[in-house]
Amino acid sequence: MMPRIMVTGAACLAATAAAADADMRRIDYTCDRGALIEAAYFDVDGEPEAVALTLEGRLIGLFAENTGAQVRYGWPSDGSNYVWLIEGGAAQLLWSNGAEQSESVLLQECLPE
């Protein structure tokens, strides 16, 4: 069963994209251990707004965070959540533990197909 927060996140992404007249682009990634991630990026006025990731049948909705040189997507809360980080053409999927204020790499070396 898909966690309720992920479904809610995906619904929020769809509503945000529709309301903001966002451009959508899709990129498939292959990560370490052969994991496949489908990413649908939503950009508004050429700036990252949100991403919907599909991994092992799970839909993960994340919003863009202002980080400077990196493109980082996360969930706006102090709790635990996924983070999608893109830098230099490669991506990583992280788990952010809100209670411990730490991040762990779940998948790395995610390269576009």
Automatic annotation (TrEMBL):
InterPro entries: MliC, MliC_sf. It comes from the Bacteria. Keywords: Lipoprotein, Membrane, Palmitate, Signal. Residues 29-99 form the C-type lysozyme inhibitor domain. This is Membrane-bound lysozyme-inhibitor of c-type lysozyme. It comes from Wenxinia marina DSM 24838.
